[in-house]
Write a structure and sequence with these properties.
single chain, about 425 residues, alpha+beta, BirA Bifunctional Protein, domain 2, Rossmann fold, 5-stranded mixed β-sheet, 15 helices, 16 strands, about 40% helix, binds histidyl-adenosine monophosphate
Length: about 425
């Protein structure tokens, strides 16, 4: 019986990979320009790391983690996000001793046992960035500026930046009790999940997509009315700095985020191209988390972009990269095939993307193959060419042909490589 991939786990096929590579290359280039350095952390962590940081009563920890006991009896979890692991590594290796502010990024797969649908998978990929050690509101604005640059360089200008503040331990508990009290009066109209959330995590109701829950929230208390002075000043300063940099945003007091570690600034970047799962990026500040994980009491803020969602916005747009070939070698006859095989290797060593078809076949069949692969040039080596010590080279775009002596072929190929590099 044929074995299929696990539900919610996708293959990224060769035809799609060019876009993923483009997204990652631009992301790396922008992140490094803004002072971020890559960190690579394990996919498996101790379960406790996630339950303590993301929060016991979140959907992720309650019902979405891939958790198992390994052969030594330890409970391990496949990372559902990267922030907790980055903080664990930062504390474990005392990275705070190296720099007062560390900017770290990582790109890779995350795992959540959610109900799969368009834009929502059980294995998905994030481009994740964290700034550790700065509580300055300019850092919040700087992260959003980075996102604007990254999206602009990918050709996306129409994304919606939405911002909120979730307060801190001195103002949030008061807000939380007000919410619990208010929603208590609307209990009957809430979905069964939200009725449960009322006891464990009432703010999560703000994030519920069920229509009756959304209706119940009309007239609910708004966190921004309850912020303490410090949180309010921080939030105003973030907005002032965003305006200074000319970054358009809107304030949305319903952005509560699905992870419990947030404090103060939270944000999401939304795209109208995405359907129900419309958040292409989410993030926020988590001052206090480092201390709770046993590290120094340093502030932090970060974001994660969902790569599947970003790639799906870019798919089908003009300018999506296609990978093509620089040279296809067509050979006719045993001796010519042997020569072509040798030149194929030389071409590749010179840096050209070159291919030939070992099945041989007629010249017409080999030309069809060159066309299919989108080759820029076709090099023909037949018996006639061999006897003259020449190769015929055809420009596939304009159809022109030249003959090149075999002993000059290598330098001609080096010239083609040079021309490719200049075109970028
Ligand atoms: P998050 O909002 O859970 O935040 O995820 C960030 C992004 O990952 C989402 O906006 C979405 O694009 C993508 N994403 C999440 N779940 C899925 C899924 N099942 N399938 C496809 N894409 C998905 C975090 O993970 C935080 N760690 C972000 C952060 C970093 N906050 C501070 N630092």
């Amino acid at each position: 019986m044929q074995i299929q991939a696990v539900r919610g786990f996708r293959d990224v096929l060769p035809g799609e990979v060019a876009l993923w590579q483009k997204v990652e290359a631009i992301a790396r280039s922008v992140l490094e320009r803004y002072g971020f350095r890559e960190i690579r952390i394990p996919i498996l962590e101790k379960t406790e790391l996630f339950s303590r940081s993301i929060g016991e009563s979140t959907d992720i920890v309650e019902k979405e983690m891939y958790t198992f006991t390994d052969r030594s009896g330890i409970s391990l979890t496949m990372r559902p996000e990267a922030t907790a692991g980055i903080l664990r590594a930062y504390i474990e290796h005392s990275l705070y001793q190296l720099e007062p502010v560390s900017k770290l990024y990582c790109i890779g797969p995350m795992f959540r046992h959610e109900r799969p649908q368009r834009g929502r998978y059980r294995q998905f990929h994030q481009i994740n960035a964290e700034v550790l050690g700065s509580s300055d509101p300019r850092t919040d604005a700087e992260l959003l500026a980075l996102l604007r640059t990254l999206f602009e360089e990918l050709g996306l200008r129409e994304l919606d930046f939405q911002l909120n503040s979730l307060g801190c331990p001195s103002c949030r508990p008061g807000f939380r009790s007000k919410v619990a009290e208010y929603l208590g009066t609307k209990r009957a109209r809430l979905c069964s999940d939200c009725q449960r959330r009322l006891m464990t995590n009432p703010l999560r109701v703000y994030d519920c997509k069920v229509e009756t829950c959304r209706e119940a929230l009309a007239g609910a208390p708004v966190i921004l009315d309850e912020l303490c002075q410090e949180c309010e000043a921080h939030f105003l300063s973030v907005q002032k700095n965003l305006s200074l940099l000319g970054i358009p945003f809107s304030v949305n007091p319903f952005i509560v985020r699905g992870l419990d570690y947030y404090r103060r600034t939270t944000f999401e970047v939304l795209s109208s191209d995405l359907g129900a799962q419309n958040a292409v990026c989410g993030g926020g500040r988590y001052d206090g988390l480092m201390g709770e994980l046993g590290g120094p009491d340093l502030p932090g803020i970060g974001f994660a972009i969902g790569e599947e969602r970003l790639v799906s916005i870019l798919e089908g747009r003009a300018g999506a990269p296609t990978s093509s070939l620089d040279l296809f070698l067509a050979a006719l006859g045993e001796e010519a095939t042997e020569k072509a095989f040798l030149y194929l290797d030389k071409a590749r060593r010179l840096g050209l993307r070159a291919e030939m078809d070992f099945r041989g076949g007629s010249l017409k069949a080999q030309m069809r193959r060159a066309n299919k692969l989108g080759s820029r040039r076709l090099l023909i080596l037949g018996e006639a060419e061999l006897s003259k010590g020449m190769a015929t080279v055809k420009d596939m775009a304009d159809g022109t042909q030249v003959e090149i002596p075999l002993d000059e072929l290598e330098s001609a190929m080096a010239g083609w490589k040079e021309a490719c590099s200049q075109r970028g």
